[in-house]
Each structure stands twice: as structure tokens, then as C-alpha cells.
Amino acid sequence: MGSPESEKDRQKDETQHEVTISKPFYMGVTPVTQAQYQAVMGNNPSGFKGDTLPVEQVSWDNAVAFCQRLGAKDGKHYRLPSEAQWEYACRAGTTTAYYTGNDEIALNAAGWYRGNSDQQTHPVAQKKPNAWGLYDMHGNVWQWCADWFADNYVAADKTDPTGPANGSLRVLRGGSWHNHSSNCRAANHDKYPPDSRGHNVGFRVVATAAGLD
Q1: Is the pTM of this model over 0.90?
Q2: Looking at the predicted structure, is the pLDDT value of residue 154 above 90?
Q3: CATH number, position 173
């Protein structure tokens, strides 16, 4: 996790360190779409409307409720990814700023950000996926993670870290259509209060391997 000191736009809280992900998990191929959210929750809070657009204007609490209600529908266990799981999945084995490379041209191939979005969300899975087939890990909408925010995410436990035990802000990853390229880097993280909603904030779900066939 984290970024090398040579990475452009690197933040001081991105100390590069090794983390072990010891338990397999599944991750949604895209952020949750408006059609998916509507089917589970019975409403669509998004400002930009479209079935294949990522849902936005959802709080951390809304995202957790979605996971719980989806699990109740099919008997499986869904949740938000930990920050470590998110970065591991985003990178898919890469060490560059974006899974497509280090510069804005590379980001343009992978995601929607301030430089190419026309200041709006876009249908999911339109840009290049990473090596593991995941789309929109960079840009389009910020994605809630399960963790409480820590100023520096180097945890004492380097195996399956889950962030601080408590806090007042939850982690967001990936950047969005509204943000500059620096916010969309794999190592970048941000934070919002868990009850806040944003026109550029969504989420994706994970499930433990034991929770799915």
C-alpha cells in the first residue's frame, strides 16, 4: 500500500508499506449502479439519473444498509471493502499511480476525472478495466470503504488491516469525475463523515469467498 516518494502529487500520509491480504474475497466488477440500488433499496437518490450510471448521493450508512439488505435477499454476506482490500484490488499487482501507468494519459484510459468527464458521472465499465477485470477503480465516483479514517494508514497489524477501532470520519477511495488526477491515484485516500452524501460519492461491495458459491 502507499506510494513511492518519487510519485507525482504524493501526499505525506501515503507511506509505502507491505500488507498481507490472507483471506480471499470477491469484489463487484463496477461500483453499484442506480438500477442495482433501486432494485435492492426501492429508491434512487442520485442527482445524475441513469440505470447504468453509478449511484451517488449515498452516505456510508446507506451503503452499509444496502449490503445488509442485499444479503438478506440472497442469504450471502456482503460488506464494504477494507481500505487495504480496496487498494489491493485496484492495483491488481501494479505499483504505478494508476493501474494503467503514471501520467494523466494513463488515467484517461482507466477512468473519468475532471479532465475528461464534462463534470458528470458516466455509465460504468466504459473505460479500461484492470488486470483482474475491475472497472472504475479510478474516478467516476468516490467509493466508501469500511474503515475509520487514519491520518497515516500504516496499521500495527500488517495482515488484513481494518483501520482504527473508532473515529469520526470514514475512508473514501478512487477519486471521482469532479476531482483532479491526483485524487484518483491508487494510493490516495479521503474522508467524509459517515452520514454525509455527495454528488460524486458512491460505493462497491465485496463478499468473502465463504459467503458465495
Answers
A1: yes
A2: no
A3: 3.90.1580.10
CA-angle at 44, arms to 38 and 45, nearest 5°? 150
Using left for φ > 0, alpha for ψ between -120 and 50, and beta otherwise, residue 136 falls in left
**Within-domain flag for 15:** no
Domain hosting 77: range is 25-211
Q: Rounded to an integer, what distance in angstroms lies between the CA atom of residue 173 and that of residue 163? A: 14
Is residue 52 in some structural domain?
A: yes
Number of domains in the chain: 1
Q: Is the pLDDT of residue 97 over 90?
A: yes
Rg of the chain in Å (alpha carbons): 16
Say which range, 29-33, 42-46, 164-168, 191-195, has the weakest mean pLDDT: 164-168
Residue 18: pLDDT over 70: yes
